[in-house]
Amino acid sequence: MEPKKNPQANVGRNSSLYFAIGLALMLFLTNYAINYKTYDKVEIDIGQLDLEEIEDEEIPITEQLQTPPPPPPPPAAPEVIEIVEDEVEIEETVIESTEVDQETEIVEVEEVEVVEVEEDIDVPFSVIENVPVFPGCEKGSNTQKRDCMSKKISQFVNKKFNTELASDLGLSGRQRINVIFKIDKTGTVTGIRARAPHPGLEKEAKRVIGLLPQMKPGKQRGKPVNVPYSLPIIFQVQD
After folding, report:
1. What is the pLDDT of residue 171?
2. Which of 3, 11, 104, 133 could form a disulfide with 100 if both were Cys (CB 3.0 to 4.6 A apart)?
């Protein structure tokens, strides 16, 4: 028995093409259905403006107050001028001319005496030309006199100073007192100043330095001058 189907007819030959066309058509219809919009047909009454119904707004009439100008200032009182009679006679100063001519007499001026004013000059003990001379140090050179004076003053202070005073003041250990004084142009000790751990020691140092004897004043360029002198006093307090 022979088949009745036409051998040239192949149904599945274009099946993929038909599938693609059908798929595209379905996607198009789906997209159209999703994006399709509908609107309700409702009449909206937006109203109508009738300008004739608006009443005219009445603007109140304001009255501007006028402030009266300030009154003019009172007239200034006239100045009272008092006439006073001149009772004091004023002497006019006549300035004479200082110009000279050939007839002017020349007055000889006497010699003017110039008085030199002596100044108090302080010259340090270490650089003075002629040091002050302590009694007993008259011999020797300037350096020997300086060394002799320092030695004599130290011996004098050690002899006269009351070292037991420090124990009475409650001090202990090593004590140092710095004393500064001047030997003036007459050889007298002046301007005594002291610095110590206790006012009692300062007072004692001033007392002892004030007992120094009269000296020959120091000289600079042949003239007496003031000579400052510094003296440290150091001692140990016995416990």
Report:
1. 84
2. 104
What DSSP line would sit under 100-157, residue for residue? --TTSPPPPPPPPPPPPPPP--B--TTT-SB--B-TT--SS-HHHHHHHHHHHHHHHH
Residue 39 is which amino acid?
Y
Q: What is the pLDDT of residue 47?
A: 57
**Lowest-pLDDT range, 41-45, 121-125, 169-173?**
41-45
HSE, side-chain direction, 13 A CA sphere, residue 46 = 0
Of the candidates 164, 137, 168, the one whose C-alpha atom is nearest the C-alpha of residue 153 is 137
Rounded to an integer, what distance in angstroms lies between the CA atom of residue 55 and that of residue 144? 132
Which pTM does this prediction carry? 0.49
Q: What structural domains does the chain harbor?
A: 142-237 (3.30.1150)
For 193-235, how does the pLDDT look when each residue is reduced to its tens digit (9 = 90+)? 999 888 999 999 999 999 999 999 998 888 999 999 998 988 8
Distance between CA atoms of 140 and 143, rounded to whole angstroms?
8
**Neighbouring-strand partners of residue 223:** 220
**Would you give the end-to-end CA distance of the chain in angstroms?**
161
Residue 16, both tokens: 């993929």
